[in-house]
Amino acid sequence: MSAPAFPARTTEVELGTELQPKFGPDGLIPCITTDHVTNEVLMFAFMNAESLALTIRTGKASYWSRSRNQLWVKGEESGNSQLVKELRVDCDQDVILLKVDNVGGAACHNGYPSCFYRKLAPKADAADPASLKLIFADERVFDPATVYKKKH
Questions:
Q1: What is the dihedral of CA 77, 88, 28, 151, to 10 degrees?
Q2: Nearest CA to 58 among 123, 112, 4?
Q3: For a designed S-S bond to 101, which of 46, 50, 83, 109 qualifies (C-beta 3.0 to 4.6 A apart)?
């Protein structure tokens, strides 16, 4: 699929009414994904023009995997998909915000409801690196070892 063409950026980016996403030099735009009801941040990923167009066309969150160098539709392997309820852009249109229905209850490939499943432990002190511990804040929804079995 060739890269979809979005409207050229004009001087009306910040207050205009036309979607004019600003992709970086690498062709990517950051995307924050939240639960449309609770506003909990579920994940952060990148999109390219193709994944953004696919998201708009299908209503299913699609991203660009930098590690695999390929497009991926959220949930295509795990079944934990994200149905887009609202797509927003920030003021200068260089960040996408998706508000989604997190079908299946897990947004993270590690099986957690959100990719932000750990938090800094109380009494952490930046002057004491040994105190900078993370503690788990959420329970797993699924076991990734079972869900992402290697395909032969």
A1: 0
A2: 4
A3: 83
Q: How far lies 39's CA from each of 34, 55, 101, 136, in Å?
A: 5, 19, 11, 20
How many angstroms from the chain centroid is the CA of residue 32? 5
Q: pLDDT tens across 34-52, in order?
A: 999 999 999 999 999 999 9
Tokens 């079908």 correspond to 103
Contacts of 68 (CB under 8 A, 6+ apart): none
Tokens at residue 138, please? 């959420």
Interatomic CA distance for residues 18 and 122, integer angstroms:
45
pTM confidence score:
0.91
Distance, C-alpha 97 to centroid of its chain: 8
Rounded-to-5 percentages of helix, strand, coil across the chain: 10, 30, 60
What is the chain's length? 152
